[in-house]
Specification:
Helices cover about 45% and strands about 20% of the residues. It is built from eight helices and nine strands. It has helices at about 10-20, 35-40, 60-70, 85-90, 105-125, 155-165, 175-180, 190-205; strands spanning about 1-5, 25-30, 45-50, 75-80, 95-100, 130, 135, 140-145, 150.
């Protein structure tokens, strides 16, 4: 999985990231609110670890900005502010869970797993993905455009599903490599270009409106 860790304490941030990396995950770091907002709105993450007390843009304002913009990435708030009132405030602002400092790393991982699992359970309840006259039925795994079924290979289906789930957002090569091919590095091949080209031909063939 891919996480964004937003924490201004360098030692704590490095500690969390080191543990997540050792667990086989991909991790980006941000140490102030403005950098965090950039990362969170330009990249795709399975979950975000968010400290409340941040320079330039505080964690609560950052979280509210993300939710107002439609960003539904699960967020685990990490804070030394542990009163009931503060925890309620964080959850009401859009947080999915709240962990008080100091904390156990094992508990942090368990809570991340839980909010990611809940998010995926909710996403799996969606039966169809659609962009204009292109419809993907997630139960039958059929894809149609203007009612005509498209014959897609397994990887082409995965690629199209990821694009549809991120409709209207910029999708980077890194995002495709990590989420469709499960590469956490650039294999320096033209694998993405080849598959996108094939998918375009199948999806846009005979249509006056290109979708990809």
């Amino acid at each position: 999985m891919r996480y964004l860790v937003i924490e201004d304490d360098r030692d704590l941030s490095d500690y969390i990231c080191k543990g997540l990396l050792e667990g086989g995950h991909s991790v980006d770091q941000a140490r102030d609110g403005k950098d965090a907002l950039f990362f969170a709105t330009t990249e795709k993450y399975d979950a975000i670890v968010l400290d409340r007390m941040l320079p330039h843009l505080d964690g609560m304002t950052l979280l509210q900005t993300l939710r107002a913009g439609g960003n539904k990435t699960p967020v685990l708030i990490l804070s030394a502010l542990g009163s009931v009132q503060e925890r309620v405030k964080g959850l009401n602002a859009g947080g999915d869970d709240y962990l008080v400092k100091p904390f156990s790393f094992d508990e942090l991982v368990a809570r991340l797993d839980a909010i990611v699992r809940r998010s995926r359970d909710q996403a799996s309840r969606v039966m169809q993905l659609q962009a204009k006259d292109l419809v993907m039925d997630l139960l039958s795994r059929k894809v149609t455009r203007s009612g005509k079924e498209l014959e897609l290979l397994a990887r082409e289906y995965q690629l199209l599903e990821f694009l549809l789930r991120n409709k209207g957002q910029v999708v980077t090569r890194t995002m495709l490599l990590e989420n469709v091919w499960d590469y956490h590095f650039d294999p320096t091949t033209n694998v993405i270009d080849v598959h996108i080209s094939r998918l375009r031909k199948k999806v846009d063939a005979g249509s006056a409106t290109p979708l990809i």
